[in-house]
């Protein structure tokens, strides 16, 4: 896929960069933004934890040596957190020793890059992990009874017709498609789409559900997003 195609899409993945070396942090952020990613930056473990209270990143790049804790400790905390435990993590380190690499992977990193890392290689790894983590099969599609989500094209079609969705509705539908027939609590949806941002009200979820239903209504599928009173929503075909 060309860079141009990437940029023209409205889908943007959020990447959190945890790195205390400002020059490296800025260079990574710059490269990622140029490739169409949204970036968030943290210079320490605590800054990263603060960021994670506000945003729900699609992937995290963590430097091994942070000023207030080790990258490994940060990974431990993330892996114990119910909301973000599944997020792909790429560990970045100046240490080239094989034993550290093994340790990082054993403790929950998904991948490992030795500094100075090539930005090209970092981008390639990030894309590979995002593809895998977002639950798409080899052809990058999820399908549920006539609804097809194509991750490469960032398109959704219903019974062969394109569905026009905003970014939030796209993410919402993706969450449903990844959890068909499963009750999703309102705060679960909120945490997954917006992060644990206290500025977002529960009602926001309802508003976007309404919009998603409206989009699906054109295809007579608005009833597929079922309200479970007082709890949340469920994607069900009936
Ligand atoms: Ca460092």
Total beta strands: 12
CATH fold field value of the largest domain: Rossmann fold
The helicity comes to 40-55%
Low-pLDDT regions? 1-10
**Mean model confidence by pLDDT:** 85
CATH class of the largest domain equals Alpha Beta
Corresponding CATH superfamily of the largest domain: Response regulator
Fraction of residues in β-strands: 15-25%
Total number of distinct structural domains: 2
Largest sheet: 5 strands, parallel
- CATH architecture type of the largest domain: 3-Layer(aba) Sandwich
Q: Structural class, judged by helices and strands? A: alpha/beta
Distance between the termini: 37 Å
Oligomeric assembly: single chain
Number of helices: 9
Physical arrangement of strands within the biggest beta sheet: 2-1-3-4-5
Keywords:
238 residues, disordered N terminus
Question: Would you give an account of this structure?
Answer:
The protein has 238 residues and is of the alpha/beta class. It folds into two domains: 7-133, Response regulator (Rossmann fold, 3-Layer(aba) Sandwich), CATH 3.40.50; 137-235, Arc Repressor Mutant, subunit A (Orthogonal Bundle), CATH 1.10.10.10. The chain is 42% helix and 21% strand. It has nine helices and twelve strands. It has helices at 3-8, 22-34, 45-54, 71-80, 98-106, 119-133, 167-178, 186-194, 202-217; strands spanning 14-18, 38-42, 59-63, 89-93, 111-114, 141-144, 147-150, 155-158, 161-163, 183-185, 225-228, 232-235. It has a five-stranded parallel β-sheet, sandwiched between helices. A four-stranded antiparallel β-sheet has the order 6-7-8-9, with helices on one face. A three-stranded antiparallel β-sheet has the order 10-12-11. Helix 7 crosses helix 9 and helix 8 (186-194) crosses helix 9 (202-217). The longest helix is centred in the last third of the chain and has 16 residues, at 202-217. The two termini are 37 Å apart. Mean pLDDT is 85; it is low at 1-10. The protein binds calcium ion. The site of calcium ion has 5 residues, from loops.
């Amino acid at each position: 896929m060309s860079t141009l195609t990437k940029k023209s899409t409205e889908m943007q993945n959020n990447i959190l960069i945890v790195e205390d070396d400002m020059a490296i942090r800025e260079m990574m952020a710059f490269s990622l933004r140029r490739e169409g990613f949204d970036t968030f930056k943290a210079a320490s473990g605590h800054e990263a934890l603060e960021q994670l209270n506000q945003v729900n990143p699609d992937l995290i790049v963590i430097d091994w040596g942070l000023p207030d804790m080790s990258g490994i400790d940060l990974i431990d905390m993330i892996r114990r957190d119910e909301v973000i435990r599944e997020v792909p993590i790429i560990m970045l380190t100046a240490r080239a020793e094989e034993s550290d690499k093994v340790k990082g992977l054993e403790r929950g990193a998904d991948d490992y890059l030795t500094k100075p890392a090539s930005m090209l290689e970092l981008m390639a790894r990030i894309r590979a992990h995002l593809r895998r983590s977002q639950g798409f099969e080899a052809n990058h599609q999820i399908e549920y009874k006539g609804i097809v989500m194509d991750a490469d094209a960032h398109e959704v079609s219903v019974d062969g017709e394109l569905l026009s969705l905003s970014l939030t509705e796209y993410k919402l539908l993706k969450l449903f498609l990844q959890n068909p027939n499963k009750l999703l609590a309102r705060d679960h949806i909120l945490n997954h789409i917006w992060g644990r941002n206290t500025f977002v009200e529960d009602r926001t979820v309802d508003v976007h559900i309404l919009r998603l239903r409206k989009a699906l209504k054109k295809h007579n599928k608005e009833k597929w997003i079922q309200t479970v009173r007082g709890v949340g929503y469920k994607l069900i075909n009936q």
